[in-house]
Amino acid sequence: MNEDQKDKKSVEGGGRRISINLFWFIIIMLTAVIATAVVTALSLEAGSEKAVNVGTDTRSEFAKLYNVYDTITSEYYTDVDRNALIESSIEGMVEGLDDPYSEYMNKDETAEFQESVTGDFEGIGAEVMQEGSKIIITSPMKGSPAEEAGLEPGDQIVGVDGESTEGMTTHEAVQLIRGEKGTDVVLSIVRGEGEPMDITVTRDTIHIESVTYEVIDDVAHISVNRFQEGTTKEFEDSLNRAAEEEVEDVIIDFRYNPGGLLDEAVSMISQFVEKGQTALYLEDNSGERTEIVTENEANPSTEDMNVYILINEGSASASEVFTGAMNDLNEDVTIAGTRSFGKGVVQRTQEFGDNSMLKYTNTKWLTPEGNWIHEEGITPDIELVNPDYYRVDMLSEEEVYAEGQTNETVTSIKVALDTLGYEISDFNTTFTPELTTAVMNFQSEQGLEQTGDVTGETSTALMSELRQYINENDAQLSYLIDYINGEYSEEEIEQRASENAEHIEIERPEPEEDGEGQSEESSEESAEEGSTEEDSSPSEGQDAPEEESSEEQDAE
């Protein structure tokens, strides 16, 4: 054996021989040991700004975050939930955007969000509302488990599966009532003056239709409450029905529509304009614009229709996309109501492996003529403000209002009673003898003790009667129909609406501070052009402001 053969090691494997010189083998090993020692020393010296390697990302801007995480997980006086720390740090990061339309949703919140996109959820199928401290069923949905179980409008829910609803909000009660398809929920119900009774309801999958259709005084009224999967099909069916019934005047009602899926709005625009027309522009943070065009041929049913769009301060996002496009593309369209909300930005969603989701604002949108309506809204051609009775203060059962008092709520009481037919001659803030008489007359007709004071059951009854009146008398819709039918000119109908709104100040909600609302929908969407969404409704702080004096939502 020669010297070269003595200084080599041989490795055999799979029929292949690899030879390594012994001298260089030793040098390589020593170099590796020294390099490891140097890296370790440098890491220890960095001490105060430890960087944890997350995957392959060691960006310095996360050093403080990692340091806080390491400190808490290693030195906090008791065990900590590491997942909770990570979740809360993500939530905090999104909150740092100070954007009411961006949010991080955990697994459960994501599931609720997805329900809002499809309009499907699992529950009993009944609308409920909060009336004072009571949870009341306002309407079982047709063909729903609630209807089949015998629940009726006006039923008070006093318990769910043995748990009292006393002190609960509508949202809290809804969360108990909803549940997995095929499971039972026991509702304790009080009907009229009767004793509580238990009704067992088997939950099922409930679909909320986003479009309703009716004809009033020869005018088709198509109400679109949100843009979810399938809204365009429902909308098209309504338009076709109007054409079959030879109804030429059509009102498209977007009041309190918080938005939803952007692609549904574009498809709905396609019902009225030719294929290839600009529906809107999307503009990113570099100022680059992307044109979004209609992809379908116009619906022949709409060719001879006179279109009116009804909006208010709760019309936002995708409903503004539709209204803005129709305003720019069709000079014959008339917009009526009050100035819309003004949401000119678009959100995208990104789902993660644990079924959580990030919804974030990624572009702003502009009308076909390049107008950005953000925080400005769309101004109607015909201004139709709602009467005073839509803006009365919500009365609490605990508060007492009596003769001699002076405050703004007294004006609300006067407006409510006058609306219900108890004549009031002045609407100042003083509780006058005239008001006492009106209250006693109301109490007499309601079978209540005639004290002349507004408190307790009197407050609840007054709010209930007013809500029912509002449900049966849609002022803005009536104004517009009267105008369409030629009973009033544009100037006359605006004046009429204005005269009925003289006593309670109209306050427009600020887009930056949407009132927190509860809706069983909460909004918005999925991404691509199908993952681009235009809404927020729902998410907290994004529900459209409500004018009615009671909280109402779909419960299931």
Automatic annotation (TrEMBL):
Its main location: membrane. PROSITE patterns: PDZ. Residues 510-556 have a biased composition (Acidic residues). InterPro entries: ClpP/crotonase-like_dom_sf, CtpA/B_N, PDZ, PDZ_6, PDZ_sf, Peptidase_S41A, Peptidoglycan-bd-like, PGBD-like_sf. One of its GO terms (molecular function) is serine-type peptidase activity. Gene3D superfamilies: 2-enoyl-CoA Hydratase, Chain A, domain 1, 2.30.42.10, 3.30.750.44, PGBD-like superfamily/PGBD. Residues 492-556 are annotated as: Disordered. Residues 110-178 form the PDZ domain. One of its GO terms (biological process) is signal transduction. It is found in: Cell membrane. Keywords: Hydrolase, Membrane, Protease, Serine protease, Transmembrane, Transmembrane helix. The keyword Protease applies. CDD domains: cpPDZ_CPP-like, Peptidase_S41_CPP. The chain crosses the membrane at residues 21-44. It is a single-pass membrane protein. Belongs to the peptidase S41A family. This is Probable CtpA-like serine protease. It comes from Salinicoccus sediminis. The lineage of its organism: Bacteria, Bacillati, Bacillota, Bacilli, Bacillales.
